[in-house]
């Protein structure tokens, strides 16, 4: 199967409020995707629907080709919820037993090796682990299932920078040499930049950008030039963001060809700046699934 | 999964067993004391002698163990304790702590997770309540034999097979309410209220109608003798009726104003401190009763129907429990 | 063994940064012919980047003939990188000085020179690889 997770017109409403609307995407198998957006954007809602904890209001979603929560996919999906829920009064060793008995295949040796490398004692109560240790235990338990797809809800949010780095190292190591698809949500772009080859940008329940990271970097540029030069620039598909002093204009643009106009200086843009431009509600940006089509202005 | 379920209920089970052990010890000690007195006072002998009047022995026994009589109703709450201790937290605590996001994303379906844990706690509850019922039945036998019989509401509920059904119902009620409310403490409160409401409603209003009650008319015997309708019978209501069948006094007592207005010379008893009232003597009153043709009308369920009623009530509560179980499965399918 | 680094906001694609670091190590003699490059797993375990980035970098080095991947064993350095001969360095230095002087004469300050150099350098580097 080539698509690990796909949705069409997915929507979720809580009472009167739509937490997700018109979500359509295809996540290729083997990719490491980052689901990024501000708090309240709907990231947790989307992940919970994908793993079968929540039922959607409209649209459809398929994980590994099945309905979420279906018996056939339960053991092939690894999930760690926000703040890594564990049973506080279980020891680490008992959490491992838990994992082993709740899943048909579970690599106990793998978890033991992880715990000893990270120096987490097996008899320690889960409730007394530090934030970084909890996150590592949760990740190890999920990886031990040898899942085909791994979903992580804000795994880095409550971790200090060192713990964040260690978590990402562990995660990347764990997925090397496997075909596992990873979808992790975060509002920390710098960490996602390093590890993700796909970005899914979500704001206020709608996707603003879904694309391969390399394509994003290739197809977005920062143009600096004299202020008077207005009008269409060849090679620019859409201006996402612009600012100007009395002399100079700076444009963040999406390109569909090379910029040959000599009056514009062309610079690279960081992933963070591109994502921020798409998140900015004043921007008319909306692009999905790698083809980066311009869409009508998103209603505020 | 069984290991997981046991590990999560281990502490509850051990505490519950501890409490039951203490209760059992108290019951056994006091039970033997009662049996001893029952025999040594001669009451046992008297009751097994046909036709004997054991009134004074009975009164003495009841006075001696008056305190224990009060304890008996406490065992009525045992089923709901199982319900709030095991049942209410099952789903509620899992959701309250957020660990459902862990438990329901493993390789076990939600239905299997729920059924394994529910079966386990129901198993504990059945074992616990069966043991308790057996002990309480044994312990209360002297009290019941000397008293009003096992069919009486309050005693019926503690014997036989119904306590187990109440317990299973209480546990399923707790689980279902926990699934709806999703917070442990409110779930506990609502389970207590719900259980009490259902039990009271069924005991007071429904039970007497399981089978059509029987009626009988007997001589007015309010002044002497045991229950005119027989031992072990559940008297639902008694009324004093006149010659033509009109109800003169509800509850089978006497309305002295009624008597006085119809029989000359009747004076109602005037209570004086320290003793019985002065007034017309029992013979005068009796002749007035005969003159007016007053009799006792009783609505009752015969003693032989005790087990039948037990099975009917057992069935009702088990059916309710099953309904709650189905509801819970449906409810937890896609919530969060 | 070489240790990799990633500069977050340098604007240079991550895999290119790895390629450059290998070439730099080769030039300085820190990596020699026959040395083994760290495995993908070791690299991602130490600097937490996407494994595909490492794979892409190693493929690029292989394409340039600098390393060789042996399946089941690892990736090994094939040959060193010699720098240009010393007199080439001196000539390049002189032409660079000439360019800098004309830039300053044109009125650019130090930061403008750096900015101009950086963006042109990046363009050229990408063209070379592409």
Number of strands of chain A: 13
Q: Helix share of residues of chain C?
A: 55-70%
Distance between the termini of chain C: 28 Å
Which structural class fits the helix and strand makeup of chain C? mainly alpha
- The shape of chain A, in one word, is elongated
Biggest beta sheet summary of chain C:
3 strands, antiparallel
Q: Give the radius of gyration of chain C.
A: 18 Å
* Helix-strand pattern of chain A: EEEHEHEHHHEHEHEEHEEEEH
Amino- and carboxy-terminal Cα gap of chain A: 38 Å
% residues in beta strands of chain C: 5-15%
Q: Helix segment count of chain C?
A: 5
Q: Report helical residue fraction of chain A.
A: 25-40%
Oligomer: heterotrimer
Poorly predicted residue ranges of chain C: none
Name the average pLDDT of chain C.
85
Structure overview:
Helices cover 28% and strands 30% of the residues of chain A. Chain A has 300 residues and is an alpha/beta fold. In chain A, strand 11 and strand 12 (248-255) form a beta hairpin. Chain A is elongated, with a radius of gyration of 21 Å. Chain B is of the alpha+beta class and 336 residues long. Helix content of chain B is 62%, strand content 10%. Chain B contains twelve helices and six strands. In chain B, the strands form two sheets. Chain B has a four-stranded antiparallel β-sheet with strand order 1-6-2-3, with no helix packed on it. Chain B has a two-stranded antiparallel sheet with strand order 4-5. In chain B, a hairpin with a 2-residue loop joins strand 4 (270-272) and strand 5. The longest helix of chain B is centred in the N-terminal third of the chain and has 39 residues, at 2-40. Chain C contains five helices and three strands. In chain C, helix 1 (14-27) packs across helix 3. The mean pLDDT of chain C is 85. Chains A and B meet through helix 3 of A and helix 1 and helix 6 of B.
């Amino acid at each position: 199967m080539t698509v690990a997770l796909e949705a069409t017109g997915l929507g979720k409403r809580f009472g009167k409020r739509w937490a997700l609307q018109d979500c359509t995407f295809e996540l290729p198998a083997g990719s490491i995707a980052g689901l990024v957006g501000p708090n309240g954007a709907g990231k947790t809602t989307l992940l919970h629907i994908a793993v079968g904890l929540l039922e959607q209001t409209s649209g459809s979603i398929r994980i590994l080709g099945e309905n979420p929560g279906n018996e056939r996919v339960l053991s092939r999906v690894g999930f760690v919820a926000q703040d890594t829920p564990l049973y506080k009064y279980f020891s680490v060793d008992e959490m491992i037993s838990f994992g082993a008995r709740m899943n048909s295949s579970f690599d106990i040796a793998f978890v033991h090796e992880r715990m000893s490398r990270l120096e987490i004692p097996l008899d320690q109560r889960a409730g007394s682990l530090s934030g970084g240790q909890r996150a590592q235990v949760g990740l190890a338990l999920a990886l031990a299932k040898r899942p085909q797809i791994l979903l992580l809800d804000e795994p880095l949010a409550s971790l200090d920078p060192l713990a964040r780095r260690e978590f990402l190292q562990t995660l990347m190591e764990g997925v090397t040499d496997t075909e596992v698809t990873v979808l992790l949500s975060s509002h920390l772009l710098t960490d996602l930049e390093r590890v993700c080859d796909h970005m899914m940008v979500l704001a206020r329940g709608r996707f603003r950008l879904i694309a391969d990271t390399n394509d994003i970097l290739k197809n977005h540029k920062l143009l600096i030039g004299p202020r008077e030069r207005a009008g269409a620039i060849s090679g620019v598909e859409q201006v996402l963001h612009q600012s100007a002093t009395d002399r100079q204009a700076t444009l963040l643009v999406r390109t569909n060809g090379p910029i040959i106009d000599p009056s514009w200086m062309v610079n690279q843009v960081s992933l963070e700046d591109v994502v921020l431009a798409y998140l900015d509600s004043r921007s008319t940006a909306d692009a999905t699934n790698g083809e980066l089509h311009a869409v009508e202005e998103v209603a505020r | 999964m069984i290991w997981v379920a046991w590990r999560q209920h281990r502490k509850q089970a051990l505490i519950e067993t501890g409490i039951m052990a203490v209760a059992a010890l108290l019951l056994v000690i006091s039970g033997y004391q009662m049996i001893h007195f029952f025999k040594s006072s001669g009451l046992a002998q008297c009751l097994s002698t046909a036709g004997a009047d054991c009134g004074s022995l009975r009164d003495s026994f009841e006075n001696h163990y008056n305190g224990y009589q009060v304890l008996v109703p406490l065992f009525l709450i045992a089923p709901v304790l199982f319900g709030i201790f095991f049942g209410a937290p099952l789903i509620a605590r899992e959701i309250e702590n957020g660990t459902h996001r862990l438990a329901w994303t493993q390789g076990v379906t939600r239905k299997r997770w729920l059924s394994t844990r529910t079966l386990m706690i129901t198993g504990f509850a059945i074992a616990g309540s069966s043991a308790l019922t057996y002990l309480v039945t044994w312990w209360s036998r002297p009290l019941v034999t000397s008293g009003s019989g096992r069919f009486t509401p309050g005693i019926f509920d503690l014997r036989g097979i119904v306590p187990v059904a109440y317990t299973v119902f209480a546990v399923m009620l707790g689980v279902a309410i926990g699934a709806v409310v999703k917070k442990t403490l409110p779930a506990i409160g609502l389970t207590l209220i719900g259980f009490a409401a259902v039990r009271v409603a069924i005991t007071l209003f429904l039970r007497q109608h399981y089978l059509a009650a029987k009626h009988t008319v007997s001589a007015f015997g309010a002044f002497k003798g045991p229950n005119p309708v027989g031992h072990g019978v559940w008297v639902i209501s008694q009324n004093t009726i006149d010659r033509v069948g009109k109800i003169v006094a509800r509850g089978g007592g006497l309305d002295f104003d009624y008597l006085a207005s119809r029989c000359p010379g009747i004076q109602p008893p005037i209570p004086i401190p320290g003793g019985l009232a002065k007034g017309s003597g029992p013979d005068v009153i009796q002749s007035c009763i005969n003159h007016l043709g007053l009799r006792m009308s009783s609505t009752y369920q015969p003693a032989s129907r005790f087990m039948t009623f037990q099975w009917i009530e057992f069935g009702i509560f088990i059916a309710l429990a099953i309904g709650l179980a189905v509801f819970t499965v449906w409810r937890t399918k896609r919530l969060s | 063994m070489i240790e990799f680094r990633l500069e977050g906001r340098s604007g240079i694609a991550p895999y290119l940064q790895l390629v450059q670091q290998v070439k730099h190590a080769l030039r300085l003699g820190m990596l020699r012919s026959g040395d083994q490059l760290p495995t993908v797993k070791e690299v991602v375990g130490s600097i937490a980047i996407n494994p595909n980035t490492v794979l892409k970098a190693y493929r690029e080095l292989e394409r340039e003939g600098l390393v060789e991947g042996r399946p089941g064993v690892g990736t090994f350095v094939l040959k060193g990188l010699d720098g240009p001969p010393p007199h080439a360095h001196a000539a390049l230095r002189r032409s660079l000085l000439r360019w800098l002087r004309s830039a300053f004469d044109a009125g650019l300050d130090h930061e403008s020179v750096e900015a101009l150099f950086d963006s042109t350098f990046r363009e050229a580097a990408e063209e070379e690889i592409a």
